[in-house]
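Our preliminary data section would be incomplete without showing what the modeling component actually yields. Below, a chain of 358 amino acids is followed by its predicted structure, encoded as tokens that our downstream tools consume directly.
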Amino acid sequence: MMFGGAAAAVAAAAVTTFAGGGAILSFALTALALSLLAMMVGHATEELGSRMSAGATGVLQSALGNLPELFVCVFSLRAGLVKVVQAALVGSILANSLLVLGLAILVGGIRNGRQTFASDSPRMISTLMLLAVGALTVPTLAAQLHTPASGHLAALSAACAVLVLIVFIASVPFSLRQDPERSPRHAAATPVRPSRAQLTNGVNEGWPLWLTVTTLILAAVGAAFVSEWFVRALEPAIQALHISEAFAGLVVVAIAGNAVENVVGIQLAAKDKPDYAISVILNSSLQVALGLIPVLVLLSFVLGGPVLTLVLPPLLVVALLLTTIISAVIVNDGETIWLEGLALVGLYGITAAAFWWG
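Predicted structure:
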């Protein structure tokens, strides 16, 4: 069912892209195809994750789940849509840390009551996220305050990107070691995570390894093609819908590119697996902030289009700072209630509304 739906969506997106089905229809179908391909990646990585710890599952699922967004940003940079890329990258962090995390806490809290989880890894992710905010704040302030560095913003952004990447690479082993099932606090409370087949059928069988790997390869290849079609339809759709590039990147592109976390994180919280849910969601934000953004900054020097700098509109930087602080406060104590999730969703709505006009 999942494979057939994704294949049908990709075929429909290809027809509207090359046969001329209108900007809005083409944009909608390519966004749908991109989301379904991302869900395929999510299903496959969940099967792989059934053999791993929460930390390793979060890292793997977030890395593969961000592939569609990487492709979208690369093609957008080549098309010269720098504002869309900047808004999409920050929007991805906001969507994960506010909307998806908020919905996961809200749904998990309503279905299961107060949820507890190991807080060591979320606290470390929050610390690293503050570093990422700093890497975006310093070039932005240098440009806004017209310091001597303001004449070298591309070089400053490249230097910040390299340093942030070094920290990110060093953080991966720490994330992989995080296993709440070995924590004394959760040893008795957190069961070993079953595979999707166990959850749905009650059978101790999952996908065979060859099917999982094949699904990942096909979904990645499909996402590469669909991402190009998505970007091709993006600019005409923005004009037809009369929305700003900032709102399109911050909300539309960010949500379409994060379908994996949107679905999987909420499902895991609903199944009373908050350790895995928070690991997947927060690791996705962290990988965008410390991995995807600096990689795209460095790639922009060789893609042939405009250089992507870390200079953002001040409102985006403030929104990112508020998001990092409030999400850190909520996960710091290792427990959540549904009202905290509703607060995160509310802040996301307020932030999105501020960018409706640009």
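The two ends are 39 Å apart (CA to CA). Residues 2-354 form a domain with the A middle domain of Talin 1 fold (CATH 1.20.1420.30). Preliminary results of this kind motivate Aim 1 of the renewal.
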